[in-house]
Amino acid sequence: MSEVGFGDLLQAAFQQFGHLCVGIDPHPFLLNEWEFDDTSVSLREFSLRVIDACVGQVGIIKPQVAFYERHGAKGMEALEYIIRRAREAGLDSKSLNFLLGEYNQLLPAIMEGNAALDNEACVSAMKETWGAD
Question: Measured between alpha carbons, how far is residue 47 from residues 3, 11, 15, 50, 85 in Å?
């Protein structure tokens, strides 16, 4: 029996839900628009609302790690929590793992519009959270 690979999982998600990958990008602007403050607790609550809206509607989600990193350990704790909740809600954990694990190698070329947001979030994390110049 052959192992089910990412392509098989992706094709199954496409067949069931279509070709949509929902990015969870808790940008400060979006948090403000949704009337959240820019804290790790708000990241978690924003993300949980997106996950709830995705369940049964889409097969793939992609949290944007840099937006969680901006809040240091508390932000990464929020990311870990929402990944667990996404899995518990039935979103495909193998696809989710692939998207998180392979993001730096594959998705920037596919989703080039996110590059500016990624850079902005990374710079913010380096300056505000980690104290870099």
Answer: 32, 25, 25, 5, 10
